[in-house]
Every structure is written in C-alpha cells, then in structure tokens.
Amino acid sequence: MHVNEDARIGVDIGGTFTDLVTIADGAVRVHKTPSTPSDSERGVMDGLEGVAARYGIDPEDIGFFGHGTTVATNAVLEGEWADTALVTTAGFRDVLEIGRQARPDIYDFDAEKPTPVVERDRRYEVVERLDERGEVVEPLDEASVEALASELADVDSVAVSLLYSFENDAHEQRVKELLRAQGVDASFSLSSRVLPEIREYERTLTTGLNAALKPVMDSYIGRLETRVAEEGVGTDVKIMQSNGGIITADAARDRPVNTLLSGPAAGVQGATYVAGLAGIEDCITMDMGGTSCDVSLVEGGDPLVTTDVEVGDYPVSVPMIDIHTVGAGGGSIAWTDAGDALRVGPRSAGAEPGPVCYGRGGERPTITDAHAMLGRIDPSRFLDGPSPDDAVRQAVRDHVADELDMGVAEAAQGILDVANANMARALRVVSVERGYDPRDFGLVAFGGAGPLHACKLARELEVPRVVIPRTAGVLSALGLLISDVLYDYSTSKVRPWTDVEPRTLAESFTTFRERGSDRLDTEGGTADSLQFERSVDLRYAGQSFELTVPVPGGEVDEDTLETVVERFHDRHRQRYGHAYEDEPVELVTVRLRARGVVDTPDLHPEPVEGTVDDAVRETRDVVYDGRTHETRIYDRRLLPTGTGFDGPAIVEGTESTVVVHPDQAASVDEYGTLLVEVNA
Amino acid sequence: MTDSVTLEVIRNACIAVCEEMNANLIRTGYSPNIKERRDCSCALFDAEGEMISQAENMPVHLGAMPFSVAAAIDRFPPETLSPGDAILLNDPFYGGAHLPDLTLVTPVFHETADGDTELVAFAANRAHHADVGGARAGSVAADSTEIYQEGLRIPPVKLFEGGEPNESVFDMVLSNVRTPDERRGDLRAQEAANQTGKRRFLELVEKYGLETLTEALDEIQEYSEARMRAEIDELADGTYEFSDVLDDDGLGNEDLRIQAAVTVDGDSVTVDFEGTADQTEGPVNAVLAVTASATYYSVRCVTDPDIPPNHGCYRPIEVKAPEGSIVNPEPPAAVVGGNLETSQRVTDVVLGAFAQQAPERVTAAGQGTMNNITFGGTDPRTDTPYAFYETQGGGFGGRVGTDGMDGVHVHMSNTMNTPVEVLETAYPLRVRRYELRQDSGGPGEFRGGLGIRRDIQVRDHEAHFSLLADRHTHQPYGLEGGEPGESGAAELETADGETRRLPQKSTHELPPGSTVRIRTPGAGGYGDPADRDPEAVRRDVRHGKVSRAAARAAYGVDVAAGAAAGVEAAAGEPYEPTDDAEGDDD
C-alpha cells in the first residue's frame, strides 16, 4: 500500500458518538461529535468540520479515509432491507427457512425462529443438480430459468444459491447470464462468490443476506461519498470489514455481508495494536459501552477469526473476528426478579434517558449509578447542573436495597458484583472454552465502561496485567488507521487428504492469488507490500468440526502436504488435548488471505513531564468490595510518561475512568498507555 | 442466610462451570453425535445428589440425570467412594434412559484442614454414543423386543478408581461395541469434562468456604423451588385428565394409550399415569427416568422459563407411573424408542391436561415424534461400511398469539440436522427433495407448524434402512377449537417407479436407486380457524404453506387464482399429486 504524507482519518459511527481519529505529522488527535442516527452522514460532516476547526486539518489534507459502519448491522437487526428474491435448486427452496431444525429456546414457547431473509413466495426453483464433486447430475434447464424473468422484474436484488456451487459455479453463472439476457436488471449475489463453502443453509443464508443488504449499502456509501467529496475530501472512502481488514467502498458495496461487525472489528484491531506497543501479543479485549460488552481473544497479535457468528439470530458464515457479546454495559439496569434475586441487564437505560446520575430523567439504577454511588466516578464532571447524588441513592434504595433488605452501599456493590459475574462468564467463553488459559493473557479494556471493571475482572480470572489505552474511547476509529487491507478467498473441496494432489491445491492458491493481486493492484498496492497467507481447513474423516491450518510458503509438493497434515495433528492436540495420527484426514476448504500491509504510524505522544503528585486532582473516599479507602484521583492527561503509582487509585480520562484496586500497581508507558499489575 | 448478591454470583459461577464442562465435552468428544448434533448434557449435583445447575442441550436429559446420580450413590454409597473415582452407567433400569446414553458420575472430594477428605459434590455428564453394540449398528433397533438386543447394559460401575482407569471395565465395554476406538475417545472426553467440573467446583469451595457455598447451593435450590411453587399456585386447583396414544410398537400392538391425571393442589403438582397401557413387546417402553423427565419439562414450560433449572424445580412435582406400564416398564423390556418417541407423547399428554386449566400457557400438539432414520451398508465409492443416523423436525404447535414454527424439533429433542451437502459427501445417499409440507399444519386461529418432506435416494448399492417414528395414524391434536396437524407418512419408491407405503416402525433392505420419502407430521392448530385473520390466510396461500382449496375449506377464505403464483408454477419437477398438494383431504 502506498502511504503518503497526508493526514489519515478514521471515522467510526457509534450509537451515541461519532469518533474521529486523525494522524498527521506524527500526531494522533481525537475528536468526538454526537451521532445523528436519522442521517448518519451529517454526524460525519460535523466531525470533519470539527477536526478542521480544532486541529487545522482540512478535508483537502486527508489522504486516507477509513470508515467503520453499522449500516448493514442495523439493517439486519431491524429487518429493513431490499426486496430480494432467491433462485435455488429444484426441491430445496425451503432450506433457507428450515435452517438446522433446532429451535431457539428449549423451554420458552414464545421463542421464534428468525424470519427467513427471503419470503417463501420469493424463493424460486430451477431444474438442475450437481453432485458432491461438482459433476452434473441433471443439466440446467434453461427454460426453467427464463420462465422466472417476469417474476423477478420488480425485485431490487437476486440471490442465487445452488447445491454444490462451491465445486462448480457454471450453473449459477449461467442463471445470472440468462436472467440478465431476459432483462432482469436487479443486482446479483451468487453463492459461489459470496461464500463458496459447503453447508447449503449457511451458504444460502449468507448469500441471501448479502443480496438483501446490497441496495442498502450501495445507497449509504453513495450518499457518504457524495457528502465527503462535497466537503473537499479528495481520497476514496475505505471500509472496515468484519475480519479486521480494510476494503474499498466498491468491495463493501459488493459484499455488505462482510461488514456486519465493521465497528467492533475496528475496535479489536485498535486494542490489539495498542497492546502490541506495550509488548503484549496475547490478550483478551473487552469493549464495554452503554448497553453491552464485546469480548474477544488475540493470539500472537492476531485476533481469532471465526466463521460461526450470529448477527441478529442469523448465523452468518463469512470470516469475522470472534467477538462474544453479553448484555452488560454502563447503562444496564439493575432489578429484582420474582424470587428476589438481584439481576443486572440485559435491559439498558441507553443514551436517553441514560443512568440516573446523568440527570436526564433516568429513574432506574444502572451499573454507572452504582459506580457513582461508590465514589468511583464523579457525575458532576460531565454535568452542568447539581450532582444528582440523592436521586441515585434513592433509585438504588427503591429498586434494589429495599427489595432485598440491604443497605444502599451494599446494594450498589451488589450491582457491580452481579455485573462482573456476567462478564467473567463471557471472558471465560472466549478463553477457557476455546482452550486458552487466561493467566497467559493481558486484558485490554476500552469503551466508556470497560476501564471501570477491568482490574476487578482481571483479578477474578487471574489475568496478570491490564492494558488501558490512552485513546480507549476511540479505539475503533484508531483501528481504522492501522489495519491492513485484507481480502479473503476460499472454496470448499471436500475429499480425503490422500486424494489431494499438490497440483490441484497449488492451482486453487494461484487462482486466489491472482484475484488478490489484481484487487490490491487496482487499489494502488505495490508488490513488496503484498502478502499472501495460505491455509486449509482439515478434519478427521467423519468429524464435523474443521481446524484451519497454515500452508507453508514455496511450491506446493508432497512434502508440503505432509507438513500440513502434521500441523493439523499438532493443532488438534493443542486445542482438543488429543490427536489421532492413524485416522484418515479430510480436506474441507482451501483458503487464501491477500494482505496489503499498511505502514503503521508512529503513535508516540509528546512526553508528559512532571511528577505523579502533579496529576492528583483530589482525594476522596471510594468503596472497593465493601471497604472504604481514601483514594487519590488522578488526571490522566497529567500523568507523567514512564512513572508509576499504587492502588487504590482512580484515573480520570476524557473518555473513561480507570479503577485501580488496592494492592494493584499502575504505570504509564511511552505511548501513554496505562498498565496495571493485577497482583502487585 | 446468604445475601442475594452472593447467591446470584455463585449461581452464575455454577452455570459457568457446567457450560465449561459442556464446551470441553463437545470440543474433545470424538463422535459426530456429540460434536455436531450436541446430543449431550453436563450438570453439577450436591453431596446429596440434588442437581445444582445444568448446561442444557437436550431436554430429555434434563430431568433424567438425577436418576443416574441417585443410582450411582445407591450402588456406591459415599463411604465406598474415593477421590479419583468415576462411575459409568447406562442401564435404563438402574439410572439410565436408553442404552446409547452413557452417563459418567464423578464424586468431588474436598480436602479438609485436618487432611481428611469430604465428599462435597458430583460432576456428571451424559452423551449419546454412536454405538453400544446389540443387534443393529447404531443401537437404535426398531425391531427389538428385549433390552438384550439393544446393546450392552452397564449398571453403575467404577470406570476410574483412585484416578486410574479401570482397564477391566474399559476392556469389557470396548469388546462389546462396534467402534471401540471411537468409544474410548468419547469416554475419555466425558472423563475430561467431569475433571473440569471438579476442578472448577473446588475453586468455588476455596473461594467461598465450604460452609458458605453449601448454604448458598441449598438456597439456590430453594429459590427455584419458591418461584416454581409461586407459579404453580397461580394455576387453579383441581384434577385434569388427558390421554393420547402411541400409534403402535412396530410389532402389531396398536393404539397404546398414555393417560395422565394432573392434580394441582396449591403450590404442588402430581402427575399420575394410572390407566396407561401395559408395557409392550416393541421398543417403545419409557423407563421412569424418561417419563419423569418429560413431565418435568412440561411443567417447566407452563411456568416461567426464566426459573433457573436445578433440583428445586422438581420438588413441587410428583410423578406416579404404574409399574409394568409403557411409562415405567420392568426388565427386560425393549426401551430404545421410549426415550425417543414415548417421551414425546408423555409431553403431549401432560401439556394436554394443563391445557384444560391454563390453555394460554401451552401449545397445541407438536409433531410428537423424532422420525429416527438409519441407513447402513457399504459405500461403493470407498468400499467401506457406513451407518447414517438422523432425526427429523416437523411442526411445532400453534399457541396464543402465534403460529407454530415450521420444520423444527419439538419438546424432548433439539438436535441439529445434517446438511444435504455434508450428508451426500459422507454417505452414498442423495437427497432428492427437502421442503415444508403444504397444508400439513393444523388449521386454527393460530396455525400449527408445517411438517417436512425429505426424500433420500440410495445410490448404486443395496442399503439397510430402518425407520422409528410415530404419528402416522393418529394426528397431533389441536386446542381451543384448532384442528389437528396432518399425520406423518413414509413411502418407498423403487428404481422402476413402484411405490409402497412403509410402516412407521420397520426395517428394510433397499435395492439400488430406491428412494425413501419421509413426511413428518404437522402440528395442531390453536383456536377456531374461523377466527383467523384473513390476511394471515392470504399470506399463507401466497407463501404456498396453505393451498387455495384448504384456505376455502378450513378458513372460508377465497383467495384469487394467481395470488399463489410463482412457487408451484416455477418448481422444476412437475408438481406431484401427493397428499401434500391436495390440501385438506380426509
């Protein structure tokens, strides 16, 4: 990738704020502006104007514009997408609706399966059939395709998903050609392009979602590009996709289904980068905002990627950063259930009215209110009016303490303990349940509420060190600036490993490599910044879980195949505790990732001089696990580079507040990152 | 009295322990039954054998596991147990459910300050093994008449002693199954899962102290019990009876009645199966653990699903099942289908009884079967033997305010299906058609869910086929004026085009090229069809879920020709005039 001297800007639109991070002349600058959900581009324009006014970086100076978007995610969550049709193999139009047959909840009779992405009367069958090797069992009946043209005249988007299209895409291509020739001018999504992988339900659903989102994404990007260009930005818009890589706006238009975790993926990328600067390559990231907490695991500097993620009840099978979400955020409401147990969330007070302590009419006690009551945050810092201490106390008393017959302070501590128990479960899911020991990891906390909880959670899980980035509240926007360009290519080829010839494997890689090079070339890449990462998904014959194994570089020969299968056994042993070296191994999917490496900017801030004492704002009483400690409250901006201090301490930043518990020790590194030793 | 915060934190921690055991079992398990279909469950029990928490995949395991722990304690009282022991069992007449479900119970010992050890809990898990010997590969024989034909029967035995595997037991078990390496792998995975549970539980003992933890665990159970009782208390007192039948046992014994009298008395419920048919020759006898499990499930569904599942939930429920009946048989009854089919009918009957006092809390009958199919033979592509087992979803019952779900597993089952592309790649079979059955959902203000049609063809070889299903004769009932769902059916079409109906419990040798057509039942509708929103009827017709003829006959709604266009017209094969297409026949 060509990196120029121009300013780079990352723009992440969140539910409450639109964050902008710029890097120009070696300086990182942050700007926040309220999001404008009804017209989200307006928030971006406001932000660009703010950046110009505040930092003197004009739109004309911008040489890179990276964007994290929730437009596809919101469309899925709200089910508001384009009028879409599906063309599929005769006899299989209900695959999309039947799904995997399991129901969403065992005991709840009111639980519903997700609505099919394409309604039944918009799912059409064509006569054709391939077998598991892609051989034609029944040729495509072209008349059956042409007969559909009149039915498809009024749809915006068409998904085509035929059985075994990942082995042979000829029928899908021909369906598109024939329909185009018949005057169908909708946009097309072919399953052999969107997700050429085995398992018809997941492939069809992913292709159907892609088709349904295409017009939505197209019009959004169109509006954004126009407005950004009008503002004077001369460079193209780049979009973050769910796998943590940057793609062009056109690629996002073509594959909106790849952007469903755009924003959260950018956050994980940003967190990974900052942890790496602190020398921590293995970490668990925790992004706790107002309504939920996103958790993921990073191994060796790379976030784990999965193809098994649910977005709004739909299992979407494209590669995404493995992010696990729980309904615990700063705004999560505490309540007592029918059996007088204390519960927290998943209902949230959201941004409006927000927690009681925001003084905007919230009446139910939230996690944030519990922190306020215990002295960890000081609401007066972000309020104009009088501090609503009494209202917070009253809410905790009325809704929790009185119900449970306990003191108010005890109730506030209880709210935090219950919320932490929920989050500890989530942290275990991404680590212990995936075969990783949290004691070998760091915990990177960000989002408005993450740093309030991280040090306590780390102690709970025996994570030795907590990392709190300086730009914790805007890591997603930062992530947009440091992420590589990534394009993933894959195709399923299910066959015994012993039947795989080096030549055929090499051919797949070559095809993918050419597609990747072409793609990166058109984006202004240069050869020496391109990387190609080859891998295969293997399993023991008869098993249904695959493991992705890297394929070594160089020519693919018999030795390569041997190395790969050895790596598979090793990886199986590492993840599952055992390997079966005598069992036959099966190839499932061939993968290639094309990477355009981005030069990462120097993030060194101006060193802060002075002493730790200079950074003390005040001293006040703060409650930790029922014990009150007189605590120094630090201003994060004034903490000198390279110094340390002991807990208990509260560190107030512009975006979030860090709680350092008694018996913990904190230090500030050269990047302004706060590092906390959990068991000092 | 533990404070409510600590209680909630400990409760979460116990769930986390079970979830971790479960993830561990699924990750390390060897057979697809565990890994893909997730036919396994994990739980923690206190020192008295009462359940503390459970990770739930399979409803039928829910209430049955406590019987396993009780049997383990009965055979090995605490004074005979040592750290490092683990007890294996599958005997349906002594703690098990049916033979393929192997349960491993591991006692958890805590070391006290003076160096003694004290039994503080049990970690247990159950997994459906792909084969446990017996007359048929897969150990789900539709034609067994005695448990001896169904596989190896294991009473509670120590699989591990003092931390060491009991090699004699391993040898004994592995000598009696068709795929011993796979079984060994699965058993090791079960042991590893319990070790995880044990380790995590002891961490909780460490953290909270044994006394506090024990007290909290008691209170967590009391909490669930109290909430359960409060919910039951809301139901009107009285005795409510209902009965339904299993179509047959596969050996000519038909209309096997299951009768339940549900008595609500204040905050407790008694379910009495007096009047139920005597145990029968075919493999549809459900042992008490299965009957109790289906009953507990039903009561849980009519109360708040948010109540944490533990032993406290069961305390208000009493199950009475006459000895020697199909809901509490005596050895050597054949039982493999009791867990799969009879459990579904028990659920239908108990929910049917609740319908009389609280119709708004239940659904009309779901498909009421698991439609078990097994294909076996030699794969001509590789010349190796194969066995393929799967179950099929169908209609979920209509309920107040909502139509039943189409094509899902109901009540006691919740496994995932095998994708067509995976199935055909792994086995010499071809799926010809896989779709929802038009007009199979019982008409009602809220329509019953649709059944599924799945046609599977045998390619280039002769295959053994066995079917174990029900509801081919008697239809799933409707409620509150709703009509019954369409019954299921199975047909065999040979390569030369001849078609014949297959009995619902039968085994066959299929010549190359033959196709088995499975039609699973639709579910009952809820409420008078005349009250259905005509717009919903028109939508169903537009979606092809209800035919125009049925819309007119069942709902009195005329839908203009052309409104149902697209689907049938565009379908590739000529639309076959099967019962699916004719709509409201018989």
From TrEMBL, chain A:
GO molecular function: 5-oxoprolinase (ATP-hydrolyzing) activity
InterPro entries according to UniProt: ACX-like_C (IPR049517), ATPase_NBD (IPR043129), Hydant_A_N (IPR008040), Hydantoinase_A (IPR002821), Oxoprolinase-like (IPR045079)
Domain Hydantoinase/oxoprolinase N-terminal as annotated: residue spans: 8-181
GO biological process: glutathione metabolic process
All copies of domain Hydantoinase A/oxoprolinase, residue ranges: 203-488
Cellular component terms per the entry's GO annotation: cytosol
Domain Acetophenone carboxylase-like C-terminal residue range list: 503-671
Protein name per its UniProtKB record: N-methylhydantoinase A
Organism: Haloarchaeobius iranensis
From TrEMBL, chain B:
InterPro entries from the UniProt entry: Hydantoinase_B, Oxoprolinase-like
Domain Hydantoinase B/oxoprolinase, residue spans: 3-529
Residue spans of biased composition, Acidic residues class: 576-586
GO process annotations (BP): glutathione metabolic process
PANTHER family in the record: 5-OXOPROLINASE RELATED (PTHR11365), HYPOTHETICAL 5-OXOPROLINASE (EUROFUNG)-RELATED (PTHR11365:SF23)
Taxonomy of the source species: Archaea, Methanobacteriati, Methanobacteriota, Stenosarchaea group, Halobacteria
Protein name in UniProt: N-methylhydantoinase B
Region (Disordered): 469-550, 567-586
GO cellular component: cytosol
Molecular function GO labels: 5-oxoprolinase (ATP-hydrolyzing) activity
Organism superkingdom: Archaea
Residue ranges with Basic and acidic residues bias: 529-539
